Amino acid sequence: MGSQSDPVIVLDRLTKRFGSQVAVDALSFSVPSGQIVGFLGPNGAGKTTTLRMLTGILQPTTGTARVCGLDLQSDALESKRRIGFVPESGAVFESLTGLEYLEMVAALYGIPAKAARERIEQFIAFFDLSFDTLVSKLLGAYSKGMRRKVVITAALLHNPAVVLFDEPLDGLDANAAVGFKTLIQTLAREGKTILYSSHILDVVERVCDRVIIIDKGRLLLDGAPEELVATHQAGTLENLFTQLTGGAELQRRAEDFAKTFLP
């Protein structure tokens, strides 16, 4: 379980509107160092919008957020130095090789070339990537899983205090996914704060110290997964999530629809 130190991530009534639509609605929570928090919600709940505000990609409409004591708006550049972000899109510069891309990211963070190469080699060994592929193959020709490994490496190269993951297992094979789960648990033990957005709830239940569930941009539940599941007598985190976010009705409709194909 993470430490109960001063919070590293603090959201205070963080709100984002797109025209008349409220994507994130006065969201408030804090996360201490060394804690892995599962950030959950159905599609359209506001998870990715929240993560993008935390990285400075989007500006909040109202409310504030702080990372490592730095305000994300008034201390934008310094706060970004403390954050590593793995976006759901896994977007990269497809006309670069994997090595060129990672060396570019390292240079942007001011990491000396020798130290950057050493870190890159450590990560590609961990992810079982071929160095020849990293050097000779353009990212546009990488598989989805290989791109994901490169994007995760890029997010961690500068040794950030806070790491934000948006569907990080998307595209990873089973062995890589097991390795990734070990990686984030190790990062947390080293004191890093991890906000982990995912739809793979059995993984969240196993690796996260705490889960925050939002829907329609609002906070629904916040607590240790085993305690929340026990309190609501849900059996599993997936069942609890379904109960809270209207998934039970969708599941019933899917079962009824499937029956129309039966003789």
Order of helices and strands, N to C?
Answer: EEEHEEHEHHHHEHEHEEHHH
Determine the strand fraction and express it as a percent band.
15-25%
**Number of helical segments?**
11
Tell me the CATH topology of the largest domain: Rossmann fold
What's the average pLDDT? 89
Unreliable stretches, pLDDT < 50, 5 or more residues?
Answer: none
What is the 3D form? globular
The N- to C-terminal Cα distance equals 52 Å
* The number of domains: 2
In CATH terms, the superfamily of the largest domain is P-loop containing nucleotide triphosphate hydrolases
Structural class: alpha/beta
Largest sheet: 6 strands, mixed
| Number of DSSP strand runs | 10
Q: Can you name the CATH architecture of the largest domain?
A: 3-Layer(aba) Sandwich
The neighbouring-strand order within the major sheet is: 6-7-8-3-9-10
CATH class of the largest domain: Alpha Beta
Helix coverage percent: 40-55%
Q: What Rg is obtained from the alpha carbons, in whole angstroms?
A: 19 Å
3D architecture notes:
- There is one protein chain.
- With 263 residues, the chain is an alpha/beta fold.
- The protein has two domains: 1-82 and 160-224, Rossmann fold; 95-156.
- Helices cover 42% and strands 24% of the residues.
- It has helices at residues 47-55, 76-81, 98-108, 113-126, 131-136, 144-156, 174-189, 201-207, 225-231, 237-244, 247-259; strands at residues 7-18, 21-32, 36-40, 62-67, 70-71, 83-86, 162-166, 193-197, 210-215, 218-223.
- A six-stranded mixed β-sheet has the order 6-7-8-3-9-10, with helices on both faces. Strands 2-1-4-5 form a four-stranded antiparallel β-sheet.
- It starts with 6 loop residues before the first strand and ends with a helix.
- The model has no long low-confidence stretch (mean pLDDT 89).
